[in-house]
Write a structure and sequence with these properties.
This protein is mostly helical. It contains four helices and no strands. The protein has helices at 8-21, 25-37, 41-54, 61-67. The longest helix is centred in the N-terminal third of the chain and has 14 residues, at 8-21. The protein starts with 7 loop residues before the first helix and ends with a helix.
């Protein structure tokens, strides 16, 4: 199935499986974004903290700071 044909929970599951196989900041960013779009802010904050920790030079940090500043 194409990604755009999947429901958000199906996409989330696929990203979580991918994360378990290869925990990369790019995957944490996507997982956090899915949680953010689902209004699950604590989960989003958790995953985005991983991005900040594992890839502090990421170009995504400015986006993260804008939508969910550090507490």
């Amino acid at each position: 199935a194409l990604w755009h044909d999947l429901k958000p929970d199906q996409i989330l599951t696929r990203y979580l499986v991918a994360w378990q196989a290869d925990p990369r900041p790019e995957l944490a960013l996507k997982i956090g974004e899915i949680y953010f779009q689902k209004n699950k802010l604590e989960e989003a904050r958790h995953w985005w903290a991983r991005v900040r920790k594992d890839d502090p030079g990421s170009s995504a940090i400015s986006y993260l700071d804008a939508v969910m500043p550090l507490q």
